[in-house]
Amino acid sequence: MRSTCSLIIILLTLSACSSDSVETSDPTPSQVDLIDQPDIIEKIHSNNLAIPDNRFSNNYEVLIFGNSHTSKLSSLIETLISTGKPYAKIKIINAGGGFLDNITQKRTDLLENNPWTHVILQGQKYSQSGSIIYPTTAAQMWIDKAKRYKITPILFPEHPQEGNTTEGGRVHRIHTSIANIQRSCVAPVGLAWDKVITIEPQLVLHSSDGNHAAFLGKLLTAFVFYEVITGEAADLLPFIKEIEVEESTQQLLKQLASETIQSNQPCLFGN
After folding, report:
1. Which of 9, 133, 164, 213 has its Cα between 20 and 30 A from that of 172?
2. Domain 55-263 class?
3. CA distance 240 to 122
4. Cβ 125 vs Cβ 163: under 8 Å
5. What residues in the chain have per-residue pLDDT under 70?
6. What is the spatial distance between Cα 48 and Cα 37, in angstroms, rounded to a whole number?
7. Maximum C-alpha span of the chain
8. What does the angle CA 206 – CA 184 – CA 54 come to, to the nearest 5 degrees?
């Protein structure tokens, strides 16, 4: 592959965006041109390594890249892992950084110079209307780099916005299409949200802005990541008193998280 610096320079031609979830303006010519850059794409694709399997580690070191949709998620995931794997050492760092096409030296150094077992990648741009297709080259680059360092990459498709019954599935498909190009785990977050909203619509998963997650939504997302990271079924976790959600609701959320994962396997290891 080209050097890290070269990739940074090239990938920074992707446009920036002020929204946390979507981009509605037309892509710039540089975005469109990047999709067809054969030298970049070929070098990433020619090194499509298998997904490193770190599920059964006794030492979980998880890095999160993303925007405000990852806020306060790390502490919940840590609580779940420490409950389900009480003897494991756990370190979860939310490095933020915004969209995945924000390729910085700081992000690159952080990924490369620490013994991570997993990296959660959130912030692939997508069009809310579905009318614009955005480049996924940056996401592919992060996946490829993670695998080179024996880190399990996990794509994080965002949950749907409130009242949108098609967004969760569409965003999930965007991310599985990335994994079809560059092997990666895909956490079925949006699909789990769709299931809960369908079965128990009275549960408040969204914050008041209808976009970000309320605490229950974050907990549901954390249950999904617990199972993807550890390989242990979320619905086998005990009731956790320190999470201030009643036992029946915790049980429902983790049950539906596990059901969603069973129907949508996140990781195809060994391929």
Report:
1. 9
2. alpha beta
3. 27
4. no
5. 1-46, 271
6. 17
7. 53
8. 95
